[in-house]
C-alpha cells in the first residue's frame, strides 16, 4: 500500500496557497486605489475657485478717486472709482507708444469710464502694485519697478502686459458682478 503524501512537507497545502493568493490580490487592489485616487482627485476643481467663481460688489461704497481691494479667485481685485482728471489723462495717453497697446475705452464698460475693475497682480511676477506711485499717476509695482497708468496699462518696467481686466457686468448703477 502506498503512503499518503505529507502536504506540509511539500508546500502544496491548498488552504495556505489560497490565503497567499487572496493576500496578494488584496494588497495589489489597495495599492492600485492608493495610486489612482490622487490622480482622479486632482481633476476636481480647486475649492477656492468654486466659492468665488463670481462675486457681486456694491459700488456705492467707493468714493470718487478711491479704490477698494477685494479677494477674488485667490487674487487681489482692484475696483477703482476714477476721477475726471484720471479719465482725461488716460484718454490723452491713448496714442502713446505702449508695450501692450489698448485704448482707455477698451479697458472699461461703455458709459462707465469712472469705474475701472482690474486684477491687482503685476503681469511680470504677480506682485501687488500700489496706486499713486510711478511715473504715470497709476499703479506702481514695488517688486521690480513696473509703472502702470490710470487705465492700468503698462508704460515702463519689466511687466509684459497691462493689468488684466476680468469679465464683469453692471447689474445696476451701483452693483457690479465680477466673474
Tell me what the structure shows.
There is one protein chain. This protein is of the alpha+beta class and 179 residues long. It has four helices and ten strands. The chain folds into two domains: 11-41; 48-178, Rieske [2Fe-2S] iron-sulphur domain (Rieske Iron-sulfur Protein), CATH 2.102.10.10. The chain has helices at 7-10, 14-41, 47-51, 84-92; strands at residues 55-58, 67-72, 75-81, 115-119, 130-131, 137-141, 146-149, 154-156, 168-170, 175-178. The strands form three sheets. Strands 5-6-7-8 form a four-stranded antiparallel β-sheet, with no helix packed on it. The N and C termini lie far apart (89 Å). The mean pLDDT is 84.
Question: In a few lines, what is going on in this structure?
Answer:
This protein is α+β, with helices and mostly antiparallel strands and 179 residues long. It is 26% helix and 24% strand.
The value of Rg in angstroms is: 31 Å
- How do the helices and strands follow one another from N- to C-terminus? HHHEEEHEEEEEEE
The number of strands is 10
CATH topology group of the largest domain: Rieske Iron-sulfur Protein
Q: Spell out the CATH superfamily of the largest domain.
A: Rieske [2Fe-2S] iron-sulphur domain
On the 0 to 100 scale, the average pLDDT is 84
Query: In angstroms, what separates the terminal alpha carbons?
Result: 89 Å
CATH class of the largest domain: Mainly Beta
Helix content: 25-40%
Pick out the low-confidence regions. none
Domain module tally: 2
> Rough shape?
elongated
CATH architecture of the largest domain: 3-layer Sandwich
SS element count, helices? 4
Strand percent estimate: 15-25%
Amino acid at each position: 500500500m502506498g503512503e499518503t503524501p505529507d502536504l506540509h512537507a511539500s508546500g502544496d497545502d491548498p488552504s495556505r496557497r489560497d490565503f497567499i493568493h487572496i493576500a496578494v490580490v488584496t494588497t495589489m487592489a489597495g495599492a492600485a486605489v492608493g495610486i489612482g485616487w490622487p490622480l482622479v482627485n486632482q481633476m476636481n476643481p480647486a475649492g477656492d475657485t468654486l466659492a468665488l467663481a463670481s462675486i457681486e460688489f456694491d459700488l456705492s461704497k467707493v468714493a470718487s478717486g478711491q479704490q477698494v481691494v477685494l479677494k477674488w479667485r485667490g487674487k487681489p481685485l482692484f475696483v477703482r472709482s476714477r476721477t475726471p482728471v484720471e479719465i482725461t489723462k488716460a484718454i490723452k495717453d491713448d496714442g502713446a507708444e505702449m508695450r501692450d497697446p489698448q485704448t482707455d475705452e477698451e479697458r472699461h464698460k461703455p458709459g462707465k469710464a469712472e469705474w475701472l475693475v482690474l486684477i491687482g497682480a503685476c503681469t511680470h511676477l504677480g506682485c501687488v502694485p500700489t496706486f499713486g506711485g510711478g511715473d504715470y499717476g497709476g499703479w506702481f509695482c514695488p517688486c521690480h519697478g513696473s509703472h502702470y497708468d490710470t487705465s492700468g496699462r503698462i508704460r515702463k518696467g519689466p511687466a509684459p502686459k497691462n493689468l488684466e481686466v476680468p469679465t464683469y457686468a453692471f447689474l445696476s448703477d451701483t452693483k457690479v458682478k465680477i466673474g
